[in-house]
Automatic annotation (TrEMBL):
Component of the Golgi-associated retrograde protein (GARP) complex. The keyword Transport applies. This is Vacuolar protein sorting-associated protein 51 homolog. Residues 277-294 have a biased composition (Basic and acidic residues). Residues 23-39 have a biased composition (Polar residues). It comes from Fusarium flagelliforme. It is found in: Golgi apparatus, trans-Golgi network. InterPro entries: Vps51. Keywords: Golgi apparatus, Lipid transport, Protein transport, Transport.
Amino acid sequence: MSTIASPREPPRRTPTNSNRPSFETSRSALASPVLTQGPTNPPPPQQQQRKTSSNRAALREYYNLRAAAPRIEIPDSEVPATEIDAPDFNAEEYVAKVINKSSLEELMKLYTSVVGEVRALDAEKKALVYDNYSKLITATETIRKMRANMDPLNPMASTLDPAIAQIYSQASSIRDALRETIPAPDSEEGMKREATARQQRTRELAAQVLAVPGRLRALVGEGKIAQARKEWVMPRKLLESWKEKGIGGSDVEECIKEGDDTLGQADSKSSASSPRISRDERLSRDSRASKDGR
């Protein structure tokens, strides 16, 4: 009795050419601040040699073996800002959302993009480090040159130090002497000194005010009556204030009376001379009219 053989399944073969993308993808074409766009390949020997020469040049400048310091121009970052750069970025939520909404191809593209951005940012960080190092070397060289330029001035500065110290000591001694001779304003002696000074100023002012009538007589004698009136306004107000407060006694009253009498006499003289002048003018006009009639 023959048996019926069941059909065999064809053997499963693994294809030799798989289209699954590899994780070792090419480097992103994002721009770097110091490198140009290119594939992810090991740096060529020329680039390694250029980097070594840059480091050697910086060391030569630091040890004053070269005139000019190398400058590294740092352009603005060309890595675009994405959702990952947000301040409130949550990595777990972002990964879950991307896995649920993206296909495998999209995930691989995103992975490649993130890897490229990380490498570009790392290159920017290295460029900033090199630039800061270059600036540090330049600043060190500038300080060294400034110190070298200051060396010839050191002897002159050393000769000025004793003179400056002497001036400072003299100023300190003068300040201490003034503090000893002049009391503090809020002390008893200072208040007495202030009261004495106030009395002295009052005496000087009183002497000036009492001398005003004599000056008024001189101005009236010179015919400057208007100026005499102007100069008598303020002294008279001050004298009236003293009189109301009972300061000065009879001297204040006599000074007021003398000043008023001087100006009153000047007014009476001017009013008495004015009719005579008008009569003389009238006679002269009559004589001229009679001559014209002839």
